[in-house]
Design goal:
By secondary structure, this protein is α+β, with helices and mostly antiparallel strands. It contains two helices and four strands; from the N terminus they run βαββαβ. It has a four-stranded antiparallel beta sheet with strand order 2-3-1-4.
Length: 64
C-alpha cells in the first residue's frame, strides 16, 4: 500500500475528484482518499510521478 500526502483538499467533492482521477490510472487499485489526514492510499505497481501528475492536473499538490 502506497501513500501520498495531498495539499489543497477542503471538502468531500475534493476527495471524490481525487479518487476519480487516481482510479483512471491503469493498474491502480483500492484507492482511498482521507480528507482529515490529507492523503491518498492505493495499491498497484504505479510510478509515483504518474500519481503526482494526476493529482496536480486537478488542482492539488502532492507534498513530501
Amino acid at each position: 500500500m502506497a501513500t501520498v500526502k495531498i495539499k489543497g483538499m477542503s471538502c468531500q467533492h475534493c476527495v471524490g475528484s481525487t479518487k476519480k482521477a487516481l482510479e483512471k490510472i491503469p493498474g491502480i487499485q483500492n484507492v482511498s482518499v482521507d480528507l482529515e489526514k490529507g492523503e491518498a492510499t492505493f495499491e498497484g505497481n504505479i510510478d509515483l510521478v504518474t500519481v503526482k501528475q494526476a493529482i496536480t492536473a486537478i488542482g492539488f499538490e502532492v507534498v513530501n
